[in-house]
Every structure is written in C-alpha cells, then in structure tokens.
Amino acid sequence: MADPHLLEDDLRARTDALDISRSFIVQAPAGSGKTELLIQRYLKLLAAVDNPEEVLAITFTRKAAAEMQFRVLAALQVAQLGEEPAEDHQKLTKALAVAALQHDREHGWQLLVNPRRMRIQTLDSLNALIARLRPISSPEGASGARIVTDAELSSLYRAAALATLDWLAESGPMNSATREVLIHVDNNTQVYVSYLVQMLRTRDQWLPFIGSGLLTGHEADALRQRFEQDLETSVTEHLQRTASAFETAVGTALSELQGYAAANLRDGGSMADPICALHEQIGSPAAHSSNIPEWQGLAELLLTRTGQFRKKVDKRQGFPPGDGGQKAAMHALLEELAEQEEFAELLDGVRGLPPVQYSDEQWQVLLALFRLLPLAVTELKRLFTELGVADHTEIALTAGVALGTAENPGDVALLLDYQVRHLLVDEMQDTSSAQYQMLEALTGGWEQGDGRTLYCVGDPMQSIYRFRNAEVGQFLLAKKYGIGNVTLTSLLLRRNFRSGQFLVDWFNTVFPEILAPRDDPSSGAVSYSEAVSVPHLAGAGRCYVHPVFGSSVEQEAKLGCKVISETLTQHAEDEIVVLVRGRTQLPNLLAQLRKEGIGYRAIEIDRLTDLPEVIEVLALTRAAVHQGDRLAWLAILRAPWIGLDWTDLHALRTTCWPLWWRQDGCRDSGSSLRLPG
After folding, report:
1. Which residues contact residue 459 at a Cβ distance below 8 angstroms, ignoring those fewer than 6 apart?
2. pLDDT tens across 526-552, in order?
3. pTM score, two decimals?
C-alpha cells in the first residue's frame, strides 16, 4: 500500500516545481515523470517571457534534447487542435501549452512554424555556441574545429605526450621537469606516455589548479598546503564516520581484547604487524590522521583481506592456544559484528587511506608534473590547431575561458546573462566539475529575487557517465549549497509511473541494501530514496529470479531465450527490454532468438552486415559488379549452396588460380583475380 505521506510529499514537490519565481534542484528517480515536469515548467516559462530565447534548456545527450523539443512541440500542437487528454498530468500540460500558445500569438513568435527559437540543446552544443561567440582576436581556436572520435583522440594524445620528450634536448625548466618525471618512472617511456595520455583526457579537472605550471616558491608552498589540507579533511571525514560506526557496533568491548592481541604479537617479535599499534589503545582510536596506524591495526585484527569480518582468530592475530578464554571472547564479538556491514566497509576503507603529507621527494616530482602537464596541453593544442580538430574537453575549456568566472565574468557571459533569464538543466547527475563551473559562470551575475531562475533535475542513483568525468558528488553538494550565487530549494519526487506496485515494493526492499546508507559527496556514494506506486498500477509487477549456476554463456543465453519466449506467449501484445552486463553477452542470446524465430531490435549492437545471409548477398553483389573480387568468390564458394570447405578453398587457391592468372595474363595485385567465365 502506498504511503500517503510520501504521496503528499510528491504532490507538493510537483506543485512547487512549477513555481517559476523560484530556483530548484529536483531529484527524480526512474519512472517519476521528470521529463514531463521539465516540459511543464518550460511551457509555463514560455508564457511569462518576452522572447523564447530567454529560456535555455540544456541536457546531456542529443537524443534527450531532441525528445524534449519534440514533446514541447507536440504539447503545443495538442493545444492548437483543442484535443482533450485523458490523464490529469496531460491535462495540466495542455493547460500550460494553451497559455504558452496564447503568449506566442500575442508576441508573434510562431514557434510551431519556427521551432528553432526554442533553445533546447546539449551541454556540448552550448559550449560550442559559447566558443563561437568569442572575439575573433581570441587566441583560442577551437570554436570552428571538427570534433574528433575517441580513436583519433588516442593517437593525438599519444603524439602530444611523445612531443614533450623533444624538450630533453633543450635547456631550462622544461628539460629538468621532463627528466625528473622520466627518472620517476625508471626511464620507461611507455609508462611515461601512457600516464600523460591519461592526464590529458582529464585536463579540465587539473588545469584550473596548476595553470601554466611555472609556480613561484610561495605559490608552490601555498598549493602544497592546500593539497595537504584537502587530504587531511578527506581522511578525517572518513575516520569520523568509522569512529561513529565503531561506537555503535563495538563500544568498549574490544579494548581489552585488542590490547591482549597486540601485547602477544609484540612479545613474539612481530613488531611490524599493524595490530601492534593497538598495544596502548583503549576504546576506539581518535578520528585524526595521526591515528591511522591504530585504525589500520584494528582493520587487520577484525577483517579478512576481502574486507569481511573474521569468523575466527589464531596466533597470527595475537590469540595463541590456551589463552584463558580471550579467544572465545573474541569469537563471540566477531559473531556479533558479522551483520555490521557498514562498519566493515568503513573499516576496510581505512586500509587505503593516503598519508596526509607529501614527502619532499614526492612534492618535487609533483612540481615537475605541474610544469610538464601544461607543456603536454600546449603540444595537444598545437596538434588540434594544425589539423583543425578538437575534443569536447577543448571546446568546454574554450567556453570556460569565454565565460570567465562567477566573480569575474567574461564578455560572452555578460552577453548570455543579458539574453538568458531562466536556465533548465536535465540529467544533472551526469555533469562534470567543469560543467558545474560553467553553470556558475552563466549564473554569476544573478541575484536572489531578481526574477531569474535555475532549475536542475536529475537522479544521482542513475549516474552512469563517470567515463565522461561526471561527478555525482557535485549533485549532492548542489542540493546542500546551491550553485554559485543561486540558492536551490531541494525537491524529491516519489511516484513511480513506470513500474507496478510489487516491483516498486521490491525496489524499496532490495536497493537500500545495495546503495550506500547515506549520501557522501566526497566519495560519490548515494543513498536510496523510497518510491511509491501509482493507483492504476496497484497489484501489478513481478520480479522473478532465474539462477544460472556456473559461467556458461551458452546456457545463460538458452535460459534467457526461453524466458523471453514464455513471456511473449503470455503477453503477446507487450514489448520486452533485455538488459545485459556488456555487449559480449549478446551474440549468443541474439543467435538463440534468431534460431527460435523471435524478432528483435538491437540498434547499434547487432549489425545487419554481420548476419550470414546478408554477408552472402553482399558477396554475390560484389562478384557480379567486379568479377575479379577474389574474396567475394571465396565467400560464394564457401556458402551453403556450394559448400566447399576450407581444404577445398586452399587447394583451389594454390593450384587452380595461379594457372588461371597466367592464362588470362592479368596482374595479381593480391586482392583481386578474374575467374574464367
């Protein structure tokens, strides 16, 4: 049964989200209708502005931007035709579209005829627009560049990294920086290049910190202090959470046992064992970086190498045979701790905590990197300019320079600030740190209550673009602190319009155990937000588990095909979506579906040219068009209607074709040969 309080909260959040005088950040789980809500706010804004360009909606992918524009136009068309929708949310959308269309007529926009006036675009296209708005005299040349593919980028990154090695022949700070980094990697140029390539991919994250890399002594000391302070803060926060969980799970029961174990190990000469750090410890160690050895000793005492609580201890942990009951007491304590998964996870995380201070040697290598990395960026820019290309990161950096900062906005930012009064951002959980800085610059001149609004919507539980440097922690920070000068009211949608009641109940039972117990911006951990089903899906939805024991991909494909076939038999009018861990699982399943005659769509996954029958038709076509296409003739001879095996084809190739070649007098180029008619 749906919780009435959660339903009330959801209705209140949806009502608030349409208050176009306020700024919001909306957490919208899967199936919550967040796109519909975004469109409703967009339509309401259209009915309140002087020009449609004053409302800017940006999303993460071109598909999402196209879908949003299509749905806005569809809503306006429904309003124009006067059709009456059946659902309440559709009626609200129509009412807002009617108001927007009336405003359109009064101002002569003609959005249905000229939809380009609606500014609905991706973040990348917005960056490109901003880059193009830069003055012609600007030194940045990425505004008109062609965006290159990932394969091209890898070679460009590698070429830029290799180009830095040329500075070994020069004198000066760049020579010494390159030399020092090479020495640090034992003169392994492959490691050197791969490391620089990796850093170039994420240059938008570190360039703001190191700039040109030519730091004065005072600037280097300040940067070192900042880095070490950040390390101290992160380590302390983790230790504080661990200490809190320790007190809840253990209390003072461990004090005597840990001291006993440490004393035994010290007496036995195992002074290097981490547990020995607990020899004078009473209770839990203090949540301070200076107590990391004690926390790591506690982790070694309680946890296995895989991060699970031990089931038993022995002399290796300081509990030898005949210990007078201490081992039994420790086993009893470990049994109590077995269910404390959060404590185990936090304590295991202590093992990987870094030192909070750099050694002088480490810092010198870092300073060398700070000088070397901007040089690699310069070489990459040179290659981009020579080839007239760029990557999305370069476009974003160019746009960032054009926008300036929230405190010191550039001319382009001031121009956009004049034009844009309302900003809507979709899929907020998939934006990167650089893109958040862009939003801060875009809204840098805004003030609370000046009529300009920022509306962000997303779901941190669905963040999937970490490979594009997405930082889900930024979404959590924006909920708490806002973006730049804009304070955001946090809203949470609860209703799930997509899944049946029993599925929603299953989500609410399973996912709290999978996701983190609480939000943590520093690690990007996200807690689960409980959802509620809608009345018309009451009693619907099921979740079945079909276990497959072993690692047989073929067996898994056969079972998957069987489940699909049975489901289609029971629900012939429905569609089925199949989700897999990776593309490598699909070929076997698709083959099984074809064998059973089950139609499917696998866009950009199962290529038509990979099907045997299509390959054979292509071979026939190529042979008919060009009789000297040797590979096409080989494919035809291998096809089922002729059926030569590989031995036959090898004999034909080595005995008959050279004779034909000599008789015809044609030149064998190694790729084609004219067969006799």
Report:
1. 27, 28, 29, 30, 32, 34, 429
2. 788 888 888 888 888 888 888 888 767
3. 0.70
